Amino acid sequence: MNPRSIPLDFLRTLAIFLVFTSHFRIFAKDLWFGRLGDFGWVGVDLFFVLSGFLISTQLFKEIKKTGAVSFKIFYIRRGFRIWPNYFFVLAIYFLIPAFIERGRLAPLWKFLTFTQNFGLDYTATGAFSHAWSLCVEEQFYLILPALLILLVPRLHFKRAILLFLGVIVFEIMLRTVVWQNWVAELYANEHHKGLSRVFFREIYYPTYCRLDSLATGTGIAAVVQFCPSLWVRLRNHGNICLACATLVLTVSYFIAEDEYGLFAASVGYTANAVAFGLLLIAAISSNGLLANFRFRWVTVGANLAFSFYLTHKAMIHLCKGWLANLSLDPGSILYPLFILTVCLLSSTLLYFLVEKPFLRWRDRFLHQESLHFSSSN
């Protein structure tokens, strides 16, 4: 058995809770979670860092062991992990109109090809729009194995550092150019109704503008696997990394206050990537607060995270209607507790009825145990 990493489970649980607070604020009431809800969208960036790290770690280990990657096994693993839950929830959205929480659904072909995040206008096709981040990850999975096979034999440490920094600089410059061309004029008119729509469509959703976090997770995995001396030095400073992560995330919070500004667009996402990269190092280091986190209840949150992510917006939307009919005061503590409970119940059902059986079938098919959410995934 591969031991689970409780600190990584904690980070995944934290990520889904942050996303929940953000969407709760939009679809239910702004009375709860306060400023945390305003900044909860960064949970997606934490998901990206974790995905970059976990998937790259799996591939790097295989490359070190065999010098190659089994594309068949990799895509079977990813397919069994993601597609059953995703397509099950997608079918519910298309078959049960009550699930549609905002606007209408994007064309089916965009969901089936995982290209929904390109040209996404949440004011028009806002239903199941949160699947945009899954599209980013699926596109990442599509190219990552071939990219690593191509690059790993040709990269030494200095080249790898330059490549990583090149990706970060490219992202900052790209978002700056996109902002200047698509957002600047609308931003100058503070009350323009199309500002957020265009900002999200051109900067927030597209994969090519969100590579910072994925690259950060991949870079950390490379250090752990290929730079043992550097990793030994890093892993002994978990609390320093945690303190630095807190500092950078605080800076990012203030940058994000001007949500659609140039500074937020250009360096805000990079700051999030750096902060969560440091948080990840703190979690997988050999000492420090996060490395010694032993509350196993977070494993439940980590197990349910994917199912929760897929269903929570529809559940918030449905609960909002139910609670209105019951005349429950949105200011009552029962209001968020009821919604959170329903979200947990729906994700638990999805996990046990769909996700877990398919993971078992995957493991039987590949004759190997499930590694999802473990530190070696």
Structural class call reads mainly alpha
Number of domains: 1
Instruction: Tell me about the largest β-sheet.
Output: none
The number of distinct helices, counting runs of at least 4 residues, comes to 14
Q: Which bin fits the share of residues in helices? A: over 70%
Please provide the ordered H/E string of secondary-structure elements.
Answer: HHHHHHHHHHHHHH
What is the straight-line distance between the termini? Answer: 13 Å
Shape: globular
**What is the mean pLDDT?**
91
Outline the structure in words:
The structure is a single chain. With 377 residues, this protein is an all-alpha fold. The chain has one domain. Helix content is 72%, strand content 0%. It has 14 helices and no strands. The protein is globular. Mean pLDDT is 91; it is low at 369-377.
